[in-house]
Amino acid sequence: MSEIRSGQIAIIGRPNVGKSTLLNALIGEKLSIVSRRAQTTRHRIIGILTRADTQYVFVDTPGFQTRYGNALNQVMNRGVRQALAEVDVVLFVVEAGRFDERDRAVRQLVPSDCPLIIVVNKIDQLKDKARLLPFLADLAREGDFAAIVPVSATRGAQLDELLAETRKHLPNNEFLFGEDEITDRSERFLAAEYIREKLFRLIGDELPYAATVEVEKFVVDGELRRISAAIVVDREGHKAIIIGSGGETVKRIASEARQDMERMFGGPVFLEVFVKVKSGWADDERLLKSLGYE
């Protein structure tokens, strides 16, 4: 009989290498929001996968920031360091064909006694497939890694191989969560994240990073959830961009976010989304804490 294993696994990497896409692919649910823009993930997200005698508790971290020093980025970097201090295994996600000083800076954060698996993501996007094996060989010379596993998170390729390698380094433990649980995050938190994802996807490069979401009301009435949420921005000009002509942009954000919520929550959602200004919120630690950034 195989032994029961359970442990925490950090997913780290520089911004925009596909960490959140990887978590969602491993769990099979949309827990962590995804967009083409860097710095989409701002919170540590826990995703739980239970397979037979093994429970994988994944911690998706924000991309570690070396360029910007505002309070928001300091909070996110602190979250990365805290996650690394608490886990049993680290999945270090890099982009196929690309490894530079920013990746090396993230690598230096990992405790020397923690098993480190390199996850080479986006192998499907590598135009010259002949470059993959030499790239993997170069990576192997970067350090003493527990394993190097090439994957495509968007296509679900090689994920079973990644799980098998990860399992080798999990301790013999009873499960940390119930077998049917997929996250420790509340529906209220997930609602805010779904709105923020649509904000990033629909506004695009027009929107500065100084925007977040605050759920002001979350009421469960039988199967119906009544949610009121504010998109918080830094200045009036940003508010106008998000509202859009005749309110069309904010309506679309709300409509698409509501559809995601109904799929995840398994019932109807009445969602109200509005926009308000809180100047300097991204550089105010007290305000960040009130918005859920620890």
From TrEMBL:
Annotated region G4: the residues are 121-124
Region of interest called G3, as start-end residue ranges on this chain: 60-63
Q: Which PROSITE patterns match?
A: G_ERA, KH_TYPE_2
Q: Which residues does the annotated region (G1) include?
A: 13-20
Where does the record say this protein resides?
Answer: Cytoplasm; Cell membrane
One Pfam family hit: MMR_HSR1
Task: Give the Gene Ontology MF terms in alphabetical order.
Answer: GTP binding; GTPase activity; ribosomal small subunit binding; small ribosomal subunit rRNA binding
Decide whether keyword DNA-binding is in the record.
no
Q: Which UniProt keywords apply?
A: Cell membrane, Cytoplasm, GTP-binding, Membrane, Nucleotide-binding, Ribosome biogenesis, RNA-binding, rRNA-binding
Residue stretches making up the KH type-2 domain: 195-279
Outline the segment boundaries, as ranges, of region: G2: 39-43
Instruction: Outline the segment boundaries, as ranges, of region: G5.
Output: 151-153
Q: Name one GO biological process term.
A: ribosomal small subunit assembly
Q: Which residues bind GTP?
A: 13-20, 60-64, 121-124
Any one GO CC term of the record:
cytosol
Q: Give start and end of each Era-type G domain.
A: 5-172
Membrane topology field: Peripheral membrane protein
| UniProt xrefs under InterPro entries | G_ERA_dom, GTP-bd, GTPase_Era-like, KH_dom-like_a/b, KH_dom_type_2, KH_sf_prok-type, P-loop_NTPase, Small_GTP-bd
The principal localisation class reads: cytoplasm
What is known about what this protein does?
An essential GTPase that binds both GDP and GTP, with rapid nucleotide exchange. Plays a role in 16S rRNA processing and 30S ribosomal subunit biogenesis and possibly also in cell cycle regulation and energy metabolism.
What is the similarity comment for this entry?
A: Belongs to the TRAFAC class TrmE-Era-EngA-EngB-Septin-like GTPase superfamily. Era GTPase family.
Q: Which HAMAP family match?
A: GTPase_Era
PANTHER family in UniProt: GTPASE ERA, GTPASE ERA, MITOCHONDRIAL
What is the protein named? GTPase Era
Q: Which organism is it from?
A: Accumulibacter regalis
